[in-house]
Write a structure and sequence with these properties.
The protein is α/β, with parallel strands linked by helices and about 140 residues long. It is built from three helices and five strands. The protein has a domain of about 70 residues: Nucleotidyltransferase, domain 5, CATH 3.30.420. It has a five-stranded mixed sheet with strand order 3-2-1-4-5. Helix 2 crosses helix 3. The chain is elongated and about 100 Å long.
């Protein structure tokens, strides 16, 4: 070895070794090639075609209001508790069944609203909704 000559082993390597990156990319590529066909498999079903025509007329919704004193109003008409359950049974027997929209005064005891809901459930009313006022900003 001559004095003053530089040996290549003492120099720092200034290039990035790309082989480990290529190996990792190939492994990921193989994993994706194997998993993509598994993801694409889905149950093939033949969905029915539906027309946009209205088949059944929707009946008018029932608006049940409960005032601050706990009195029931069926579409803004006062109704007694005994008549109320009969009206609910009649509404439940209709086909298609109307929706029951309950509007309860914020000062009414929750018990009166709960009793109305329980009576509707006993009568067989399947769709019950609550009407509220939007919060003023």
């Amino acid at each position: 070895m001559a004095i003053g000559t530089q040996d290549d082993s003492d120099e720092m390597m200034s290039e990035i070794n790309m082989i480990p990156f290529i190996d990792v990319m190939l492994v990921l590529l193989i994993i994706f090639i194997i998993t993509v066909p598994v993801i694409k498999h889905a149950v093939n079903i033949d969905l029915p075609r539906a027309s946009n025509e209205k088949v059944l007329d929707k009946p008018e919704n029932i608006r049940l209001s409960v005032d601050a004193d706990g009195a029931y109003f069926w579409n803004e008409t006062p109704v007694q508790d005994a008549d109320f359950e009969q009206r609910l049974a009649g509404a439940a027997a209709q086909e298609p069944q109307p929706e029951l929209h309950i509007r309860g005064d914020k000062a009414v005891r929750y018990e009166r609203v709960a009793l109305a809901m329980a009576a509707a459930q006993r009568a067989g009313v399947r769709k019950i909704g609550f009407i509220t006022e939007p919060v003023a900003p």
